[in-house]
Amino acid sequence: MYFESEILTRRTQPPRNDDGGDYNGRCGARFESKKLAAGTVINNIKSMVAHSLANHQFKVAPSPEELQLLQWYGFSLKFSSKQLKLIQWIPPILHYCLNVDGASKGNPGDCGGGGCIRDRKGFVLVAFAHFYGPGNSMIAEIRALSDGLRLAENLGIQISMVHSDSLALVNSFKSGKCPSWQAYRWWRVAEVLIHRNKFLLNHVYRETNQVADSLANYGVSSKNNEEEEIDSNALDDQVVEWEVESDEEEEWTNDEDEEDDEDDAELDISSASDDEYR
């Protein structure tokens, strides 16, 4: 009997409205033709709007006209204020620095990577743009880093700093955990080279990594593998293009039964085993 009376009591009691509105007033207006005063309705609306605005923080500040209108009605907004940051490319103190970036159109989709090696004056010594086939952005970032490090080692260029605009990639080497199992073999090659040569891997804003970003996008759009070595000592415009022979190791694809296309054949310079770098 106690439970039945408790349930009956709960059913007969009007539900509570946490919005601050008048439940009895709304029921009276609907079933008893009782109308609320206009001032009461306006106050209820303003109260609910103010309550909603107080629980939200906007990313974009309103215009001066919108802010003035809201203040006239007594509303206040909370929005995050943007602070300007002055950023610039940091030259290496010793030797050269490597900037790398990856790009994926569709994520996953066609992906590629690019990068450049520059001296402390900003002169580009070597630039590369590679096409990797299907993959996501993290695969492109990891492969671009691996290709850049291997390219510097093959040319005998001493690198002291490596810049990437992928914070997840930079943190993965600090934690020692690969962010993508699909790209582990390239991540492992990069890890061995970084620790063996004691490279300083830094995260930079994308605004300071525009050269590598453009090269990565070019690799995706051209679907070719290109590398250019610039004679920075002579400081002329003569560019020597050279090719790297592709190996026989099969590249990772989304479809294992995908047919090989000679026109879209991928050039892989990062398929060497880990034993070479230990």
Automatic annotation (TrEMBL):
Q: Which GO terms describe its molecular function?
A: nucleic acid binding; RNA-DNA hybrid ribonuclease activity
One Pfam family for this entry, by name? RVT_3
**Top-level division of the source organism's lineage:** Eukaryota
- UniProt domain RNase H type-1: residue ranges: 92-221
Q: Where are the transmembrane segments?
A: none
Task: Output compositional bias ranges, type Acidic residues.
Answer: 238-278
Which InterPro entries does this chain map to? RNase_H-like (IPR053151), RNase_H-like_dom_plant (IPR044730), RNaseH-like_sf (IPR012337), RNaseH_domain (IPR002156), RNaseH_sf (IPR036397)
The segments labelled Disordered in the record are: 1-22, 222-278
Q: What is this protein called?
A: RNase H type-1 domain-containing protein
User: What organism is the protein native to?
Assistant: Colocasia esculenta
